[in-house]
Amino acid sequence: GSWTWSGVAANEALVKVENALLTLSGTTKLQNVWNTSGNGGGIYATGTNTVLTLEKATISSCEAVNGGGVYLEGGARFVANGSTSTDVRIVNNRAKNGGGIYVTGAVSTPHSLKLINIQGNSAENGGAVYATNEARIISESENHNIFSNTASKNGGAFYIEGSNTVVNLPLTSFQKNKAENGGAVYVSNSASFIAGTVQMKDNEATNDGGAIYADTKAKVTLKSGGNGYDNPETVNSGLLRNIAGRNGGGIYAADAETQITVGESSTVGIFYNEAGNMAGAMYLENGAVGMLTK
Q1: β-bridge pairing 101-104 and 70-73
Q2: Residues 121-133: pLDDT tens digits?
Q3: Closest to 179 in 3D by CA, of 130, 123, 118
Q4: Burial letters for 4-38: b for 16+ Cβ neighbours within 10 Å, e otherwise?
Q5: Which of 174, 185, 192, 190 is nearest to 208 (CA)?
Q6: Could you tell me which of 161, 152, 165, 162 has the C-alpha nearest to residue 186?
Q7: What mean pLDDT comes out for the span 31-43?
Q8: Which of 5, 77, 100, 252 could form an SS bridge with 209, CB 3.0 to 4.6 Å?
């Protein structure tokens, strides 16, 4: 069946899960919650025995300090398990950090994404997702859509930070996300971002890193450009038409221990990216290491 849960202004999430299992299916909608002083607008999940599974659910128009749509901590695990790209939707939520989803802390089994659509969320940092403090997000499928999210500071779509924090996605489309730095992805403080087939198009940073901004010992690996990577007229993957107001239309990397690897498995196309000052494709400074392997 179909369920719609709607809230009002409050100091708590619409749903709290603590050391329990919750699966949302059957076209469930959580919407319109304003948690003005706490974490998690739609769902707050905590505890090492907690597994939150979204199979057919939409979380929309919710607001919190951290994690406008979903907030996870204390070992709670998140599983997005859609059958189509429209089954699991995190849309139009707001927060200071992690407009759509905020994930903090180590988990025994990584958070899992399968066919998720994260759109139109906003935050200061991490318009779509904020991952920190040893969080691990591993995708088990392709064709995620992360688009039109905004951050007033860093990471229009993903903000990834902290030692042992890892986000690993096989094929995800980052489109039309916008931030001050890192239009699509911002990686910092020894965190790692790994993309199987890269698809970052039409993202924008008003300052640096139209698609990706990496610093402070961050590691970014872009494995493959997918089919048609070598034809700028037909390419549908790689880094395409991203814009930086200052430097690094495609990628900006700073810090001597920051490492960028492009083309680990096959060539990654970088076409038609623009920078207002320098380096439409890639800008490396302060001893950052870039490796173009294919």
Answers
A1: parallel
A2: 999 999 999 999 9
A3: 123
A4: eeebeeeebbbbebeeeeeebeeebbbbbbbbeeb
A5: 185
A6: 161
A7: 92
A8: 252
